[in-house]
């Protein structure tokens, strides 16, 4: 009996610990609204996500909405556990935005009109740039570009 | 004098013949199983400018048809062009092309190319009429194309009910296209029914957009457009108008847009627009407004919605007059003190005031925001206390002694009778 009680206690404890773990969640496409622009998050090539220090996820319909959100709420970005964007070439796959690469090209229309896509590494970015043209930006550069609404055509 | 008359004659001839030159009957090329041409692609390639290609019945396994000269491509006896998931079916790269009466189907989802059944690339005055487009990624895709007409098409994608399928394109997608006319289309099972980005001075009329994953109609950065007499049913949200100015929205029906993230009409960063004579029926939120200013909302009907209007405090100078509010769980809700918006002469079925002088206008003002609706804006989960005794008590106390609800958000002259808008009823009848 005592053993069972202990077992139950541990199971409850493990359950509680698990539910508190700060982790990223898959973006529920079609069922959630962007935390910045309120549009339904629907295109799985562009979704982005921010998980704060308490583990609460915020979903965005595009990388530019995530950046606009971070430009407005800089503190949120500093204490965020995860800042994630979708790799344009591998839909639904989330990669760390702060180490990601961003291609801005007029041949790549994105949900908020900034013509911006994210990819995981520089090689993919360069390859995509050869195909579509445009310019490659780092995380810091892209934050600045969104802030100034730069959209060279 | 003679030279002058010669000149005049030349001028008159040019003026008379110029419009005719576009209708000059070229040759007709027939495509069918037993005709000279058995493939649409061959016929299109062989045709000269101004020719007419008539496809007579049959099923054609073809993709990648490129139209590079002004042609008329007509289908009779319902011919089917099956793309077999091998890429785009028709690409139009010439002005004055007409594509009519074809059935196009089967295009695979491609993430880098945005394949469509019919794509128009940087050309003008193209007409796409009475086609049926089934099971495609994008349906009709226009880029940098002006003065185009899209009429009477049926674009039907996947069944999105109950699935979070995101591998869907838009049924009609316009990007940087001005002066487009989109009328009488039926659109379902796509991401957006109609998507307009950087589109100006266009008309969207008499369309039915239903069961789309995201929006029935979606404006992004598209100023000066008009949409009237459309029906938006069971979409993620009916219509979204964003980052836009000068839109006229009249005689539309928004219904059955249910869901936690659903709206009849979503307005975000929009200004100087008119919303007249629309019907909002059974939506989670009839209109959701954020950062929207100088909107004129008149003579609309809000019937049996969860929230008729959700007016966020970032909205200013909006006027709501002569609207009917019936059977809504909440008439208006707000998250702050929206003092800069005006409500006047609306009909509210929850109004319990009186009219002693019989001028058909209530003698006491009506406050459309209930305390409970404000509580829900702050604490969404409190919605589970809906229709409980405590909530009724709270709302009634607040009604007698208003202290929390915005004191400026008030209809000083609510009307006693439902506003009749027969005009409107006639119009919805014809649309159905």
TrEMBL record, chain A:
Domain of life, source organism: Bacteria
SUPFAM superfamilies hit by this protein: NosL/MerB-like
Keywords assigned by UniProt, alphabetized: Signal
Residues of the signal peptide: 1-21
Keyword Signal listed: yes
Keyword Signal: yes
UniProt cross-references to InterPro entries, sorted A to Z: N2O_reductase_NosL
PANTHER family: HTH-TYPE TRANSCRIPTIONAL REPRESSOR YCNK
Name of the protein in question: Copper chaperone NosL
From TrEMBL, chain B:
Swiss-Prot/TrEMBL keywords: Repeat, Ubl conjugation pathway
SMART domains recorded: CASH, PbH1
Domain of life of the organism encoding this protein: Bacteria
This protein's pathway: Protein modification; protein ubiquitination
Residue ranges constituting the Carbohydrate-binding/sugar hydrolysis domain according to the UniProt record: 47-197, 221-372
PANTHER family in the cross-refs: F-BOX ONLY PROTEIN (PTHR22990), F-BOX ONLY PROTEIN 10 (PTHR22990:SF15)
Name the UniProt record assigns to this protein: Nitrous oxidase accessory protein
Organism whose genome encodes this protein: Rufibacter quisquiliarum
Phylogenetic placement of the source organism: Bacteria, Pseudomonadati, Bacteroidota, Cytophagia, Cytophagales
